[in-house]
UniProtKB/TrEMBL annotation, chain A:
Coiled coil residues, start to end: none
UniProt domain ABC transmembrane type-1: residue ranges: 97-307
Keyword flag Transmembrane helix: yes
Membrane topology recorded in Swiss-Prot or TrEMBL: Multi-pass membrane protein
Protein name: ABC transporter permease
Cellular compartments annotated: Cell membrane
From TrEMBL, chain B:
Gene3D superfamilies recorded: MetI-like
Domain of life: Bacteria
Originating species: Mesorhizobium retamae
Classification via PANTHER family: D,D-DIPEPTIDE TRANSPORT SYSTEM PERMEASE PROTEIN DDPC-RELATED, OLIGOPEPTIDE TRANSPORT SYSTEM PERMEASE PROTEIN APPC
One Pfam family hit: BPD_transp_1
Location of this chain's protein in the cell: Cell membrane
UniProtKB keywords: Cell membrane, Membrane, Peptide transport, Protein transport, Transmembrane, Transmembrane helix, Transport
Protein name as catalogued: ABC transporter permease
Record-annotated membrane-spanning stretches: 12-34, 78-101, 113-133, 139-156, 187-208, 243-266
Lipoprotein listed as a keyword: no
Length: 319, 277
């Protein structure tokens, strides 16, 4: 259990480190915060007005004091006010998050639905033409950036079938699930394909490892049907690295779907961060980067926990 | 020489090696401006013309030669990938080696700092760097280098720790070898294998990120051509001029594929643990 305790103890430390990095990073942006907040209108301020605004936002204080205020604000859920939305940052983030979460879940489903069977298929035909073709396809999939997949899918749909993915007005899942799915399916496939390629590669090699284990040989020697050997005996053990990979990729998807959300004009978290950067909405950048990093850390922690639960050997090594 | 032979004897090493070599030639030609046309020259009468003898990959909305822009773009991508991965590998090696060698507090502080950097999804950390220094080619270099430094630090520190405890290092210390000599000759030289694999895979990832940042308008700025920008420009024209999408898309994909194949082959050859029986 030592490993788990150490892992949990490091969590708040890393989180504080992350918050310091985000805090300092935003303050390294050239130019002062008032000008950044008000844009060209900042030129209209008198020095006195500028000073009182600085006092109002607390940016006249030294950095450590500002950091302390920001940190204590975080615990009460106060991440500041977004300049572009004119609303509390946390509210803006939570408005955009469900879409990104849904997108990440859908693409993970697609990736697992394609990747695991493909990996098992290839592993059971090791070094035969079927295995080679799966491996080549997976290698190509892994080397194709999501924006290339996205653009090519849009091209095939529009040039081949004369349909364009619906963009713009977005329907949330709880309003009209069917309409929502029709808008989410292409982005989910786009993200899911590259992800499926890595799942395929990992399941194939994990499956190959497991298939050469003694217990599998024993099962075969007992006369267990091959299907049962593969799906009941071998696969559950081969899934351990797949779980790890899926968790890590899922964590990336929660913050890394920027490009796909941009291509399909989906109002998710990634696109919101990008716009906040372009609009120089620092409170929003600061809050959302911290939010995404926190998610990423939580997902990674859960992956570690799942790993320990699935493979007791790790628990012992941690002692 | 033995290494090159081994790579070319490996099936994916052969394909990856050839792709990477071809790209290196294209990148060098592009970077030094040895392209069929001036990539910025606007041939107004042949705007949006498909591939032809004069313009192998057609022309874009402004009548610029796509093949020349693509060569220049490959040069640009490779420049960014090369400098960022070199910087990350150097920084990561120095940090990883010193963390392993000096241990104690320096190791703890350094590795926790790396944990913090690794707590950010890569693209987000890159976006944060772009926010601070503003978009541009060198920003991409810096962003990718910062993202990859913690990974190199970990790759170096682990094996360096176990090497440090080996007898030959103790022996070298007893002989009175200098710290620098031991670090470079005994530790670093033994780390060349994992580093080579990591560098190759990092190059693939750097190419991907550079294209992504440029695609979002945060990397290389127009009118300089880059593969990501070309793809982004093709978005509204893909039905009229599919070649604007096809060639840059293929170029990005093949370049990443080349480094991935080469990286896989190198890992098979250099890492005895994953080497197939």
């Amino acid at each position: 259990m030592n490993y788990l305790i150490r892992r949990l103890a490091a969590f708040p430390l890393v989180l504080i480190g992350v918050s310091i990095v985000v805090f300092v990073a935003i303050r390294l942006v050239p130019g002062d915060a008032i000008t950044a907040m008000l844009g060209t209108e900042a030129g209209l301020l008198t020095p006195q007005q500028r000073e009182s605004l600085a006092v109002y936002f607390g940016i006249d204080q030294p950095w450590p004091v500002q950091y302390w205020h920001w940190l204590t604000g975080l615990f009460s859920g106060n991440l500041g006010i977004s300049a572009t939305y004119g609303k509390p940052v946390l509210g803006v983030i939570l408005e955009h998050f469900p879409l990104t979460l849904e997108l990440a879940l859908l693409s993970m489903l697609i990736a697992l639905a394609i990747g695991v069977p493909a990996g098992v298929f290839a592993a059971t035909r090791n070094e035969r033409p079927a295995d080679l073709s799966v491996r080549v396809a997976a290698m190509i999939g892994q080397s194709t950036p999501s924006f290339v997949v996205g653009l090519v899918l849009i091209y095939i749909l529009s040039a081949g079938f004369g349909v364009l993915p619906t963009m713009g007005a977005f329907t949330p899942l709880w309003q009209d699930p069917l309409q929502n799915l029709s808008q989410m399916i292409l982005p989910a496939i786009t993200l899911g394909l590259a992800f499926a390629a890595s799942v395929t590669r990992v399941s194939r090699s994990a499956m190959l490892d497991v298939l050469s284990d003694d217990y599998v040989r024993t099962a075969r020697a007992k006369g267990t049907p091959e299907r049962r050997v593969i799906w009941r005996h071998a696969l559950p053990n081969a899934l351990v690295p797949v779980v790890t990979l899926s968790g890590i990729e899922f964590g990336y998807l929660l913050g890394g779907a920027v490009i796909v959300e941009q291509i399909y004009a989906l109002p998710g978290l990634g696109r919101m961060v990008l716009e906040a950067i372009q609009q120089r909405d620092y409170a929003l950048v600061q809050g959302s980067v911290l939010f995404v990093a926190l998610n990423f850390m939580i997902v990674n922690l859960l992956v570690d926990l799942a790993y320990v639960a699935l493979d007791p050997r790790i628990r012992l090594e941690g002692r | 020489m033995g290494m090159v032979k081994a790579v070319f004897a490996h099936p994916s090493g052969r394909i990856g090696g050839v792709i990477v070599l071809v790209y290196l030639v294209i990148a060098l030609l592009g970077a030094f401006g040895l392209t069929p046309h001036d990539p910025l020259m606007q041939y107004r009468i042949v705007r949006l013309h498909g591939p032809s003898a004069a313009h192998w990959m057609g022309t874009d909305l402004f009548g610029r030669d796509v093949a020349s822009r693509l060569m220049k773009g490959v040069g640009q991508s490779f420049t960014v990938a090369f400098f960022s991965v070199t910087a990350a590998a150097l920084a990561g090696t120095v940090l990883g080696l010193t963390a392993a060698w000096y241990g104690k507090r320096w190791d703890t502080v350094l590795m926790r700092l790396m944990d913090v950097l690794l707590a950010f999804p890569a693209i987000l950390l890159a976006l944060l760097v772009v926010t601070i220094i503003g978009p541009g080619t060198w920003t991409s270099v810096m962003a990718i280098a910062i993202v990859y430094t913690p990974i190199f630090t970990r790759v170096v520190r682990g094996p360096a720790l176990s090497l440090k405890a080996r007898d030959f290092v103790d022996a070298a210390r007893t002989f009175g070898s200098s710290r620098f000599y031991i670090l470079t000759r005994h530790l670093l030289l033994n780390l060349v294998a994992p580093l080579t694999v990591q560098v190759t895979l990092a190059l693939a990832w750097a190419l991907l990120t550079e294209a992504g940042l440029s695609f979002l308008g945060l990397g290389t700025q127009p009118p300089t051509s880059s593969l990501g920008l070309m793809l982004s420009d093709s978005r509204n024209l893909m039905e009229q001029a599919p070649w604007l999408l096809a060639f840059p898309a293929l170029a990005i994909m093949l370049s990443i594929l080349g480094f991935n194949l080469l990286g896989d082959a190198l890992r098979d050859i250099l890492d005895p643990k994953t080497r197939r029986a």
